[in-house]
Specification:
alpha+beta
């Protein structure tokens, strides 16, 4: 996926640090202090930890763009799996875009609304903290369309410097009529930092008789958070595909 630019303010800050080496230490310390303070919005959680549809309803703690610029900085697809960094960087990109132009132009299918919410945190090791972030997203209101919620796991240092991200849960739907599709993905994280993910996808087309031929597929995946904050895939299994016909008018 395409990696989008960070907030202009964050870019200018990084540029000023690069151009003024004598002040780099104090500037980096200020960034670290602000990021550490931002971690306070994430509620301490115990393992095992479940990322399910109930978790995707928790929108009590919106993340401001300024906070996101600190916590999501330098998270790129090169160190991310399954689209985790895409949602984080898209959030920053859209905030910057709307500030520059309240009525920007989008291509059909692009995500135009992305909101982020602080969920939980727990200690992985002395050097690493894990955070979960709820993302609510919606594409341009035309076909094809998509909308839903996602939970992204982000590992970082206790000072708030990001290490790696992983999309662990999602509830979404979309389509381009008569075609449609949906995804439901949930996860459980064990005390040993093993992330067990169950993914279920359905796709099909509406028929003129009100029925739809649907294909259901899925995966079971296991990742593990390492003591250094990197996330390693350990296993993946395809689930048997199912085909069935459904009355969509019921």
């Amino acid at each position: 996926m395409k990696v989008f630019p960070h907030l202009l303010g964050a870019c200018l800050l990084l540029a000023s640090v690069a151009c003024a080496p004598k002040e780099s230490t104090s500037s980096e310390a200020a960034i670290s202090e602000a990021a550490t303070s931002a971690l306070a919005d994430f509620v301490q959680a115990n393992l095992p930890y479940t990322a399910d549809t109930l978790l995707m309803n928790r929108t009590e703690k919106p993340i401001a763009a300024e906070t996101a610029a600190l916590l999501f900085r330098n998270v790129t697809e090169a160190v991310a799996y399954e689209g985790g960094a895409y949602y984080l960087s898209r959030f920053l990109y859209l905030d910057s875009l709307y500030k520059a132009n309240p009525n920007p132009t989008f291509d059909i299918g692009e995500l135009v609304k992305v909101k982020a919410y602080a969920l939980n945190q727990w200690k992985v090791s002395e050097q690493v903290v894990a955070l979960t972030v709820l993302i609510d997203f919606q594409s341009y209101e035309a076909d094809p369309y998509s909308a839903g919620q996602a939970v992204v796991l982000l590992t970082c240092t206790p000072e708030g410097k990001p290490i790696q991200s992983l999309l662990i849960a999602e509830r979404s739907s979309g389509g381009d009529p008569p075609a449609f599709g949906s995804t439901l993905q949930t996860a459980v994280i064990s005390p040993a930092q093993a992330i067990s993910i169950s993914e279920l996808n359905e796709s099909g087309e509406y028929g003129e008789d009100g029925h739809a031929d649907i294909t259901r597929s899925g995966k079971e995946k296991i990742y593990r958070i390492q003591p250094d904050g990197t996330i390693r895939k350990e296993a993946e299994k395809e689930l048997p595909q199912q085909n069935f016909r459904k009355n969509m008018q019921q």
